[in-house]
Amino acid sequence: MEKTVRNYYAAVNRAIKDPSALQSVSDLYTSACQQCAQDKMGIAQFHSKHERLEGGGYKLISVKAVASDENGGGVTVTYTVPASVEYDRNSKIVARFPAHPKRSAGLTVRRASGKWLIGEYTLFGNTT
């Protein structure tokens, strides 16, 4: 389960930089994961404007299974988001985003169609 969660964040980081990697994000969650779908939609909209991002993404600090059985369980994640700069297709700065402090989230991972998929994603907020 922890591997599935790590793979999800890695896929999101790749998709932020490379629009051809967006499908790999979809392959890691069920239709029940609204936050996952929002992440994917936000990345797709970003790329539809032919913009690029320097920095950003997720830097995982910890990924820990908190409860599990053969059908799935919960995973808590702690991460940061580095500062980033968004550029338009002409390399003009569109926006600057500050670094986010340490945050935590809870994800459920379930077995579906013979593989582990993220079922729900809940952002807990900033941590100290």
Please, could you describe this protein's structure?
This protein is an alpha+beta fold and 128 residues long. Helix content is 28%, strand content 46%. The strands form two sheets. The protein has a four-stranded antiparallel beta sheet. A three-stranded antiparallel beta sheet has the order 1-4-5, with no helix packed on it. The model has no long low-confidence stretch (mean pLDDT 90). It has helices at residues 2-17, 22-26, 34-48; strands spanning 52-55, 59-69, 72-81, 84-87, 93-97, 100-112, 115-126.
Spans of at least 5 consecutive residues whose pLDDT stays below 50 are none
Largest sheet properties: 4 strands, antiparallel
What is the general shape? globular
Rounded to the nearest angstrom, the distance between the terminal CA atoms is 25 Å
Overall strand count:
7
How helix-rich are the residues, as a percent range? 25-40%
Mean pLDDT: 90
Q: What is the beta-strand fraction?
A: over 45%
Strand order of the largest sheet: 2-3-6-7
Return Rg in Å.
15 Å
Name the structural class: alpha+beta
Count of runs of 4 or more consecutive helical residues: 3
Elements, N to C (H/E): HHHEEEEEEE
Sequence-ordered SSE layout with sheet pairings:
Blueprint: H1 2-17, H2 22-26, H3 34-48, E1 52-55, E2 59-69, E3 72-81, E4 84-87, E5 93-97, E6 100-112, E7 115-126
